[in-house]
Amino acid sequence: EEVKKAGEEFVKCEKFLTETKIESKIALHYSATAMNSFSFAPLIKDFDYRQTVLEKYHAALRHYNVDVIDMPHALDEYEVIVSPFLACADENGFKERITEWVKQGGTWIVGPMSDIMDGNVSRYTHAPYGFLEELAGVYTKYQKPVANDVFKAQWTNDGDCKIGMCYDAYECKEGTKSLADYTAGEFAGLSAVTERKVGKGKVILLGSVIPHEDLRRLTGETPIAEASGNIILTQRTGEADGIIAVETEGRAGCVVPDGRYSDLLTGRSFEEKIEIAPYGVAVLQRQAGSGRNR
What we know:
Largest sheet: 9 strands, mixed
């Protein structure tokens, strides 16, 4: 019955799916090398690389089109690349490729604990990072990969910056500004998050794990639509424009669209809040003349 239902629903969506495509401006690194590196050399107690990337980073970007990529993947099509816990950044010419990509206008949000090992799963002896200090324009004064409740930080423009899991503390060199500073503990006065312009782009270096809402703000991108945190959204554009909404956590959620949409699976039209049942799916096609394309 489930297979039959799925087949029938694909038929209902066939025209929409074949005449549209997914375009992602954001990429999230998930590195096979990093997974192996942290497996052989776990620098944080009980650290699970896969679970951390899923829960702390991928989950934060559920309302954006996001490609999950490995190190060899081309970078040119993206505006923002997020690279957490990218233990080894010294492979596939990545240093040269990411540097050039940033210079051409990309935003690289990198860290924590990225570029800290070579291809032999060994820590660098000349510096804490392979090349990140130079590219980000910082001096790493302290590192502490131990979760605790002592360290606190605050955004330099407004509000608390909740941090966790691991902590790097930076001194900013000329041309680099601090976005968030440690305010408590032995790192007080040093930077937890930095930004440096490189060519037409910028490098944002994270010294700790930050909340979902702060990560989203740093990307500078607009979400597809307003939706519950348990809803994954995918926007498709082309001959038509629409959104696929999927619930994956077994609880009800909703989507608030920016125009009038038709659900191709049910035939219903919506202009306000759209309820999504537990494990439910909605294939929403924007009606002609309604709202705007993002």
